[in-house]
Amino acid sequence: MAAGFCCEIVKVKIDADFSKEQLAELFINSACLIPVKQPSVSNRIIVILEDLEKASLSELLGEFLQPLENRGSDNPCTVKKVNGVSEAYYFHENCFLLGTIAKSRLQGSDLMVQQHFLWVQLRWDGEPIHGLLQRFLRRKVLSKFRGMMPPPCDPVCKIVEWILVVWHQLNSCLSRLGAHEALVGPKHFMSCPVVPGHSHATVKWMSKLWNAIIAPRVQEAILSRASLKRPSTLGQLAVKKSPSQGQQAVVKAALSILLNKAVLHGCPLPRADTGSVHC
């Protein structure tokens, strides 16, 4: 059996305001970037950049691409820090960079970054993602019932099965509508409450998820596709003016389809109890 190795893992969530100078500070503080006058270090470091879709890859990573590919003291680079001071550093050979990005495709200058990395696509409809939510919620149910799985006819099992179907149907419908930017991973559904005897708590949670996360995300993706320009990141509409009546009608129709086909269909509670979920 192959043996692993010990390493230090550094995680950081990226947002639209995260600058390349801040990234440089991160590399320096985690000892990925070493001053040219200092010897290399032996410890292994993995830096994980999460939510890269919220930034411009070319602006954030562009200046680090060549130094990352040519690590070692023989290939120094000039790094500008947050305080404005520029110094010479090099990436040591035992540092590794990973990233996560919720984006179906890259465009423009970000395509230049793509060729410098190995990309692994994790699709919602393929393993290991496809069955992740089911496994996670199953463990939640087992925990609530002290290690014993209740029968399928139990209300808790029915409500959990409904949540699983909602997630699957939601992404299936979004894929057919061509709104791939709005596809939803399992993360948002993992907070689903499992409360024996209180199925209404799960429906209330689903209502909040729809109104606060899913519906705005779908609206934004549809308006982005309807405009001539595409936004550089999800979260920034290309058209700043209010959507036209035609665009509003398209959004409303799409939300109505999703709501009826993905959310309300199969709900184990009467429709009257799901009134807080709306377009």
From TrEMBL:
UniProt keyword Coiled coil present: yes
GO process terms (BP): neurogenesis
Keyword line: Coiled coil
Domain CortBP2/NAV1-like AAA+ ATPase lid: 157-225
Protein name listed in UniProt: CortBP2/NAV1-like AAA+ ATPase lid domain-containing protein
Source organism (scientific name): Anolis carolinensis
